[in-house]
Request: fold
Amino acid sequence: MPGPYRHITTSMDGEVLVLTLQLEEVKDYVLAEELRYELTHAAKRANARKIVVDLHKMLFMTSMACVSFLGLKASVRETGGRLVMCNMSDFIRKVFNAKRLLTPSQYTGNVAFEVAETLADALERLAEP
Reply:
């Protein structure tokens, strides 16, 4: 399912929408907002409730890039869907950890983002009921 996107590619694996970032880095607000738009648009366009974001090409991001992923997370939550991030480099994982997006909430115990090591792991996780 190719889309009119500059920063991501989309594909379907069964009922799972796979959004693959084509960016190596996200350092500014404008790019973060463009990415947020593309991610949320692709998810809505596919009408998918199970989504994987593959970050294998991303090497660097500032905390501003978290806006992109939080926007997608909010959109997925609205539909009662599920989102799993995969292939995070150590640096990207550190940025998510610094923003406490991979840490369980002290109030609910929920984590903002589910993370899998590989795309195959993410797809397997979403195959579970």
The mean pLDDT is 90.
